[in-house]
Amino acid sequence: MENTANGVSKSTARLITSEQPQQDVGFCGGILIAISILMCIVFFPLAPFFIIKVVAQYEKAVILRLGCIRKGGAAGPGLFFFLPCVDEIHVVDMRTVSFDVPPQEILTKDSVTVTVDAVVYFRIQDAVSSVCNVDNVKTATRLLAQTTLRNMLGTKSLSEILSEREEISNSMQQTLDVATDPWGVLVERVEVKDVRLPQNLQRAMAAEAEAHRDAKAKVIAAEGELNASKALKEAADVIAESPSALQLRYLQTLSAIAAERNSTILFPMPIDMMKAFAEK
Question: The whole model's pTM is what?
Fold first, then answer.
């Protein structure tokens, strides 16, 4: 355990931030700096064109003097001076950057292959860390976003991926933010754009949904028939209690048929006569 703890502490100690003090350049370094300053004084009429640099409002300049971070951390925005042949300048864009995560083929927890892509928004909050702790901060963040997307969705089932996009995006954003913090990167937002399913799976899901709709429609139709039969039974009971109600219903039916303009000829027959034939 001690070896592991020492290894972690050494790895953490190698990370460089803007708050660390400037390292001593030594005697030879001091001589080189003095020579550079002397050259600027000698060539003063022309020196300002080579020792002055301007960075935009959204940029910061990380200056390495003889390979070491210059005191004060990143410079800018605005105008600043540097020593030629001694200082090395890295201009860092501090604006929010967005990039698309290429479509990733992922095998879900329930053994379904899906293709998922996402978009990530991030910005650099510590210019010194982004220059000194990682070779190419943008490329590293892109590659880390791809692996994080694959690892996170590989632990989810298809239904969870389709229904829990917001939770997956928030979890992925937190994971990326923690992993890229030593690089001076702040991941602001992650969004899962699209989840594409194989064609055969889409057809199977469509057939399943259609069968579910048909079954539901049959249940609704059966419930309607049941309610209609109950209503007809109640109406028949009411008509059976009052003979005149049947006669009125008979006349109403004849009136409805006569309202239509057709060539049907109706011969009304009294209900009592029909009852006489029924009794025989």
Answer: 0.64
